Amino acid sequence: MRIDIICKPEGGPRGERVLANVRQALNEMDVRAEVHLFCDRRKMVDNRIYVAPALMIDDVVRISGRVPDIREIKSFIVERPRYVERMRAVA
Q1: Separation between Cα atoms, residue 28 and residue 91, nearest integer Å
Q2: What angle do CA 59, 53, 28 make, to 5 degrees?
Q3: pLDDT category, 31, cuts 50, 70, 90?
Q4: What separation in angstroms does the CA of 56 have from each of 10, 38, 49, 66, 84?
């Protein structure tokens, strides 16, 4: 799983708060993922993100313009088809 957090270069602490929430959600769920924080306007333009910060999970923009809650991040991770299949195989 790949999680990208995209913010403006002058975005301040909002990108860091999103990063902290993502890491806490991943730790609580015991899920491994690549987490990247990009503070780059070019990346925003390439992904058609107009309001920062944005949270992308597997190249799909899930939230843009606000800091997501830990519960929201967990719900996005659980929605992923690969996660559902893995949990079904374990159970």
Answers
A1: 19
A2: 70
A3: confident
A4: 20, 11, 10, 13, 19
Query: What is the Cα–Cα distance from 21 to 62, expressed in whole angstroms?
Result: 14
Q: Are 18 and 36 in contact (CB under 8 A)?
A: no
Report phi then psi at 8, rounded to 5: -75, 155
Q: What's the pLDDT tens digit per position in 50-76?
A: 998 999 998 889 999 999 999 999 999
Domains in the chain, start-ordered, CATH in brackets?
2-90 (3.40.30.10)
Buried b (16+ CB within 10 A) or exposed e, 37-48: bbbeeebbeebe
